[in-house]
Amino acid sequence: MSKTTQIYGIRALIEAINTEEPIDKVFIQRGLKGDLYKELEGLIRKNGINVSYVPIEKLNRLTQNNHQGAVAQISPITFYQLEQLVETVLEANKKPLFLLLDQLSDVRNFGAIIRTAECSGVDGIIIQKKGAAPVTADTIKTSAGAAFMVPIAKVDHIKDAVFYLQASGISVIAATEKTENSLYDVSFSEACAIIMGSEDRGISPSTLKAADHVAKLPLLGQIKSLNVSVACAVFLYEAVRQRRQ
């Protein structure tokens, strides 16, 4: 599948969720009421589906069809379960490299990161079900098709993924400016995972606290931050440099 598919209409969305379609995100019109809407909302909560409540104008821009106040995006890729991803990778690679994205929200940043991840040999990407950028046609385009090549897993909470990776013998390194540790002083040579935070908030405090190591990029100019996709590329290629030595 090469581009995102839409489902529209409350009944159609209910059926899609019940038949386990790979729904990436649901947009619901603000102020909707009624029994069918309540049923849909209950299914969204039960299945942990990413949802945004938006004005009707947003839905009208998403589709020209009779959306009845609800539109869903169907992911063009198949997501992995975390346990399945980690087990498969560990069987093939004793020193894997994972990438965790803590509620990264911009689809183009996401696509750029997936592209860099594929080029730098990342074995798997882990994102959160809620609050994360969906995999859209823009994501696929910006990734130059890499979204079809790098396995991506969705989890309820990034912190839970951190604990699972640690229990599997994988050290977790968080990229944050809230430290004096340079990424050049951290070892990426063994099995490890790198966490990158969201564009505006960075890594959540609880996830940051759970990491084995924290590290930052040295910023020598007046601007005190880099675009997250650029920062991610620097971290990933420091891992590549160390692993090639």
Structure description:
This protein is α/β, with parallel strands linked by helices and 245 residues long. The chain has 2 domains: 5-74, 60s Ribosomal Protein L30, Chain: A (2-Layer Sandwich), CATH 3.30.1330; 82-244, 3-Layer(aba) Sandwich (Alpha/beta knot). Helices cover 37% and strands 20% of the residues. The protein contains 9 helices and 10 strands. It has helices at 10-18, 35-46, 56-62, 82-92, 107-119, 137-142, 158-167, 205-210, 228-244, and strands at 5-8, 23-29, 51-54, 70-74, 97-102, 124-128, 152-155, 171-175, 192-197, 213-215. The strands form 2 sheets. Strands 7-6-5-9-8-10 form a 6-stranded parallel β-sheet, with helices on both faces. Strand 5 (97-102), helix 5 (107-119) and strand 6 form a beta-alpha-beta unit. Helix 1 (10-18) packs parallel to helix 2 and helix 5 (107-119) packs parallel to helix 9. The radius of gyration is 19 Å and the shape is elongated. It starts with a strand and ends with a helix. The mean pLDDT is 92.
